[in-house]
Amino acid sequence: MVDIDESKPHDKTELTSTAASTEANRAHLEETSKHIEVLLHASEAPLTAHALKKHLSLSTKELKQTLDVLQQRLDTGVLKLHETASGYRLQIGDDYSRLIQRVFPQRQERLSQALLETLSVIAYKQPVTRNDIEQVRGVTLSSNILRQLFDKGWILEKGYKDTLGRPALLHTTAQFLDAFGLSHLDELPPMPDIDTIRAMS
């Protein structure tokens, strides 16, 4: 009597089912990635991972997979998925910055030398006091410069230095990181000296 091997049809069915499941999952990720893209386009501010998971009922693993799919699709276009300190956003690739500057020069905000120097000292040496900034720059700090940085939301006062007069300590904010396309302070380039900053202005 010859045994009949019935495993092959079963294995074939199993493989077909697995392939169908994989394809369905890929389609689901693709569709969800479009939902994320829509939300990022519609949002005026970056969206956090928590917000995306909440709005789309995604697990942490599903969100990562969906963002990977979105990034792969965006790689063929001009927009890039970028993560900042405040969350995810879409932005035009750096390759097109010169075109934007040429066609829309009014969009380019020119920061003054004094503002750049002050912001650099705060970013790299925080927390710092007003006096600390003046010592590094070697000049008196204008109240107008600090007001501009506060108005932009790039700096805030948090705590006080335990010295005479208890001066306020200045820190950069998440908005500062967002404005410069950073997720963490660790991503700041090596600290430039004041002469280099002045040459940039």
Backbone structural class: mainly alpha
Q: For the largest beta sheet, what order do the strands appear in spatially? A: 1-2
* Cα-based radius of gyration, to the nearest Å: 26 Å
The secondary-structure element order is: HHHEEHHHHEEHH
Residue share in helices?
A: 40-55%
List how many beta strands DSSP finds: 4
- Average pLDDT confidence is 85
Beta-strand content estimate: 5-15%
Weakly predicted, low-confidence segments: none
N/C terminus separation = 92 Å
Largest sheet data = 2 strands, antiparallel
> What shape does the CA trace take?
elongated
Oligomer: single chain
Number of helices: 9
Notes on the protein architecture:
The chain is mainly alpha-helical and 201 residues long. The chain is built from nine helices and four strands. The chain has helices at residues 7-42, 49-56, 60-74, 97-103, 113-125, 130-137, 143-152, 174-179, 194-200, and strands at residues 79-84, 87-92, 155-160, 168-172. A two-stranded antiparallel sheet has the order 1-2. Strand 1 and strand 2 (87-92) form a beta hairpin. Helix 5 crosses helix 7 (143-152) and helix 5 (113-125) packs across helix 9 (194-200). It starts with 6 loop residues before the first helix and ends with a helix. The relative contact order is 0.09.
